[in-house]
Amino acid sequence: MQTEARVGVVMEGGQRTISSGHASLAAVDGVSLKCSGKRRPQQPQQQVPIGIVSQLLSGGVAGAFSKTCTAPLARLTILFQVQGMHLDGETLKKASIWREASRIVRDEGFRAFWKGNLVMIAHRLPYSSVNFYAYEQYKKLLYMIPGLEKQRNNFSADLSMHFVGGGLAGITAATATYPLDLVRTRLAAQTNVIYYRGIMHALRTIIKEEGHLGLYKGLGATLLSVGPSIAVSFSVYETLRSFWQSHRPHDSTVSVSLACGSLSGIASSTATFPLDLVRRRKQLEGAGGRAHFYQAGLMGTFRHIVRNEGFRGLYRGILPEYYKVVPGVGICFMTYETLKMLLADASTTL
Description:
Blueprint: H1 2-14, H2 52-69, H3 71-81, H4 89-94, H5 97-107, H6 117-143, H7 155-176, H8 178-189, H9 199-210, H10 219-247, H11 253-283, H12 298-309, H13 318-323, H14 325-349
């Protein structure tokens, strides 16, 4: 969930006037967040409003394109995260990004860096759709709570509502689209032995061998990471952005958003990476007909990893995750802005 929250705050920081009679789409690649309050005065810019469908399409395509560009690093992250399930201690000590990347090219071919990328793309649009719709509904429900309707223009109340609404929307979207996320992990974790031949084959095989609940392995760790991921990304981003603008008020908004978004992404990844690692490993439990590796729940899995791999084992694969933060945020942000402008121009000519 790290990338979802981090791109969310960047989108909100870089573009604050996108509206269509509804709330702003703050996170097209993750949890929707909208923050209102006192801002430094900015020169008025002529904006062409675009509809919800255009926002959703721009966000979905931007997220998919960004993840496609950074897919090699994403696959390396997954492979490192699950190494502790099938490698001994001495082999784990020798593991490195360069060695693993060379093995992929040598044994699987260069295209193997994009294993699981198609299902990731298929995951983007439904995730964004559910996330955006759920955020709107949760926000309406929250403002129906007695006493909150009168607090619409209160900064603290608005911040709390958007934070809670965004968290609930993220949980809803993650749950609704989780089977695709699990399939993506299993396809990306395959190396020389191909057990799952594609998205539909993987879904059918998992249901047949592990039951329908098998599609939701690791969901608990995913849901637990939503809140901390949003909280860290949002608070770090807003703090850095406010500090930057107070000292350098004339810097480009885009530059500030990209820099602060990247740093908030690093902070979010660091804070929630252990949960992400446990999620990946739980997703692979029983994959390919193998016996279950962990015989305990979430906390038992944490204890098993720390006992056998040390505390550093919880951060196995964090380096490629760090490496993809800056390009991932930058590509997604720029693609989103470009598509939004193109769709706005197209809507005015129709």
